[in-house]
Amino acid sequence: MTFERKFYEASIDRFGIEQGTMIWHADTLEEARSVGASSIGGVPLVGRRFGPGEDPRTYAVTLSYEGRAPDGQPQGVGIEETVEGEALFIQEPIELHPSLDTLMERFGGYRDTDGRVKFSDTLPSRGTGSGSGLSRGARTTATNPLSGRTTFAVAGLEVLHSYVRDSLPGDLFADLNRILENLPSSLPSNARPVTPRGRNWMKMAPRWVARGNVVQIFDRYRLSPPGGFTKELYELFVR
């Protein structure tokens, strides 16, 4: 039973997380499944891959290590963070359009028996004269561009705030669905966008991924449609 070990190669990202590999050569399948240490310098083993080596009668084994070394950057002290924005394209019901009354007046909107907004197939007559928007002399046979429209598109945004901790914080889910006028000051200021006028933010459910002996957390904040999220709908069950 003989092993040949090659060097350990690793990189450390901005969160202080080390990712490394160690390559071994093993004579048997049993050795390929067991060779190597469960950690290197305190960084735990997270994966094992093996296959035929240079000599087809042997195995090349690649061990993957990931985590933070015990003598690495202490938790909560100078830990680097990232903030990134992700564009969204949201379809909202036409009933939520901020200028719904104007749309209904100009384009012949009405509510059906279920209270849903509908638009005629043709444009309503506006009489004579001129004005902004549609011509006031539009014929009743002109095609209505809003006919059949039940939703409208809103450009949205989701902000992800990423950081690393030794384990999931106990209060990670405390503020789910909380409505915020602006993003928290805990986000790095050079990557914290200004809230557009007439909008606010909702704290969404975070996502996270275990990376060896630490966990990377992604707090998520969703920008509201125009008019903002209605705070009164959520404040009763957000404590």
How would you describe this structure to a colleague?
- There is one protein chain.
- The chain is mainly beta and 239 residues long.
- Among the domains are: 3-67; 82-91 and 152-233, no CATH class.
- It has helices at 29-34, 100-107; strands spanning 3-12, 18-26, 39-40, 43-52, 59-67, 82-93, 109-111, 117-119, 151-165, 179-180, 201-203, 207-211, 214-223.
- Strand 7 and strand 8 form a beta hairpin.
- It is elongated.
Features:
239 residues, mainly beta, 2 helices, 39% strand
Order of helices and strands: EEHEEEEHEEEEEEE
The shape, in one word, is elongated
How many helices?
A: 2
Helical residues, percent: under 10%
Main sheet overview: 6 strands, antiparallel
DSSP summary, beta strand count: 13
The span between the termini is 62 Å
Provide the structure class: mainly beta
Roughly how many Å is the radius of gyration? 29 Å
Strand content: 35-45%
Q: What is the arithmetic mean of pLDDT?
A: 86
Uncertain residue ranges:
74-78, 128-139
